[in-house]
Amino acid sequence: MSADELASRWDLPIEPPLTVDPGQHPWSEAADLVVVGVGGAGIAAALEALEHGASVIALDRYGLGGSTKANGGVFYAGGGTAIQRQAGEQDTAEEMFRYLKLETDGVVQDETLRRFCDESVETVDWLLRHGAQLSSALCKDKTSYPPLDKFLYHSDSSLAAPYARQAKPAARGHRGYTTNGKKAWGLGGAIYDPLREAAVKLGLKLHVHAEALQLAIDAGGRVVGVKALVIPADSPAHAAYARCIASASQWLGALPPSFPLAGLTQRIGQRYLRKAAAIEREHRVPRWYRARHGVLLSAGGFVMNRKMIDELAPKYSAGMPLGTLGDTGSGIALGVGVGGAFDLPHRISAWRFINPPLAWAKGALVNQRGERFVNEMLYGASIGDAMVERNGGKAWIVLDARLRRDAMAQARDPSTVPFQRDVALVNLWFNARQAPTLDALADRIGFDRETLARTIADYNKAARGEIDDAFEKRSGECAQISEGPFYAIDASIDSKWLPLPTMTIGGLRVDERRGLVRRADGSTIDGLYAAGRTAVGICSNIYVSGLSYADCVFSGRRAARDVAAARSANQRQTAEA
Questions:
Q1: In DSSP terms, which residues pair with 59 in a beta bridge?
Q2: How many CB atoms neighbour CB 491 within 10 A?
Q3: What percent of the chain has pLDDT over 90?
Q4: Which end of the chain is less packed: N or C, by CB atoms within 10 Å?
Q5: Number of Cβ within a 10 Å radius of residue 264
Q6: Which one, of 100, 66, 72, lies nearest residue 172 by Cα?
Q7: Do the beta carbons of residue 499 and residue 258 sit within 8 Å?
Q8: What is 298-325 written as a DSSP string?
Q9: Is the pLDDT of residue 144 over 90?
Q10: 449/442 Cα distance (integer angstroms)
Q11: 3-state secondary structure 172-196
Q12: Mean pLDDT score across all residues of the chain
């Protein structure tokens, strides 16, 4: 697909690659590596390259750290990390591999997955060495996000019986924390900020409010640089733009789009975006950045580009976008524009978390026919995948009166994170349809009466230990649904009160040993790398908390090492000449 087609089809102002003579082109600056997008993958690549003696220029349109800094600060790692050892948690790289092999299902080569697992202990040591703050305070129970005072937890499905019988479970979710350790969400900066500070100290040339729009290639097709439109750092417009973008991000993320008053917050956010766009139109200037040994595309995914979602993954159009302003697909488009292969565009990670409250997960999650379709104790992305891919995006949490009382009590537990508490209570109050009998509940929701009755009867037998559960829930993980009245909470993708967060996990195909972007025929594009959610990676089949963050660091460092190796080889050749 040409750059012009990308621009018109998906609202991406990417320009066709420009063929230049690297020795004659009027470059503004030059470095061994030019990074496009400075989230988790970009900053990891920059720091790794700098540690190997390479020079690095990094460009970012917004400069806020991308989805990495905006997330909950969870980093997936195992194999016996320093944090796991402090907590007394037993784990090996082999058990980590055996578990992730089930989740990745061949999306990357076994060799790549093994390398990811084998390097995990060293990766955590690297994060700690650069100032990331991690804690060994262990949460042993399964939860979508740990209590305020816990930082190491099971951020995946490894405790669930279908996985635990194939690989030994271990707590592998490492959550970052602030200096005082009190704030418990929005802590992506606890890991990201120290890496960024370390990179700057080592000489990173960071240009924010610089939007990369065009790649430069030489006569042989090698990528040799990038053109960006930049708001000069010494201009008043630079600070004004930063304020507009910060305000836009705050307002646009204030409420889920389906909530009351969300229309107002969205309008305010869009107003700030229009102001930012006006500043860009008036004050940006073009600059060219020479990349002596490589350009890295690490500009995130495309979940904020609704045209791309509607065309490539329409089943997820009703989901709530989970990303930041930079997740427009621009990095992917730059790669496609020079022949890169865009793979798994339809793969979206959809997060249907139903624990806490644990009472929800002990209830029965059913589709629109009234049938169960998944083990309710699995990680939310596995539930969301089963719901959207195989059940039309429809799901209902069926509870009885006792389970509803339990859910209310659990939601009010002081250890529950505020956003978990608020979501649970709002749905128990406003999104739970009630009926005196199961038949009446079936009529109210539109289930088939006989199907729902059979579903609940079988579930109750599993709860009593009379039969094995069809989805391998242990009897203690099931609760009898027998005390009226009965309730059904709408957990569908279009639920008004229980939004379904979604993020893209497809991207550019890369050489898994070096990180170079591949063409459709499998050949690689010289000088062009991709990492993080701009590329297909470890988490591109089924996501678990912290796995994208870990893949960003893994893939970013992989590309940086290859650039550093190319630099060293060039220096040797020059010395020999």
A1: 36, 207
A2: 24
A3: 85
A4: C
A5: 12
A6: 100
A7: yes
A8: ----STT-HHHHHHH-GGGTTSEE-S-T
A9: no
A10: 5
A11: CEEEECCCCCCCCCCCCHHHHHHHH
A12: 93
pLDDT grade for 3, boundaries at 50, 70 and 90: low
515-541: b (≥16 Cβ within 10 Å) or e: bbbbeeeeebbbbbbbbbbbbbbbbbb
CA distances to 80, 98, 99, 170, 295 from 164, rounded to whole Å, are: 18, 10, 8, 10, 41
CA 225 – CA 207 distance, rounded (Å): 15
Q: Is 198 a residue whose pLDDT tops 70?
A: yes
> What is the distance between the alpha carbons of residues 43 and 61, in angstroms, rounded to a whole number?
14
Angle between helices 262-283 and 236-252 (to 10 degrees): 160
Cross-strand partners of 22:
none
Say whether pLDDT at 5 is over 80.
no
Q: Is 147 helix (H, G, I), strand (E, B) or coil?
A: coil
Q: What is the pLDDT of residues 50-108, one digit of tens each?
A: 999 999 999 999 987 788 777 778 999 999 999 999 999 999 999 999 999 999 999 99
Single-letter amino acid, residue 352: R
Sign of CA dihedral 143, 375, 546, 492: negative
The helix or strand, by DSSP H or E, that contains position 69, with its residue range, turns out to be helix 66-70
User: How many other CB atoms sit within 10 Å of the CB of residue 87?
Assistant: 19
357 close to 412: Cβ distance less than 8 angstroms: no
Short-list 107, 132, 170, 136, CA closest to 40: 132
Rg (CA), the chain: 24
pTM above 0.85, yes or no: yes
pLDDT of residue 2: 67
53: tokens are: 């003696």
Look up tokens 């640089």; give the residue. 225
Angle, CA 60 vertex, CA 56 and CA 61 arms, to 5°: 155
Specify the DSSP element, H or E, that contains 548. helix 547-576
Tokens of 121: 């202990």
Is the pLDDT assigned to residue 188 strictly greater than 90? no
Strand 364-366 relative to strand 396-400: parallel, antiparallel, unpaired? antiparallel
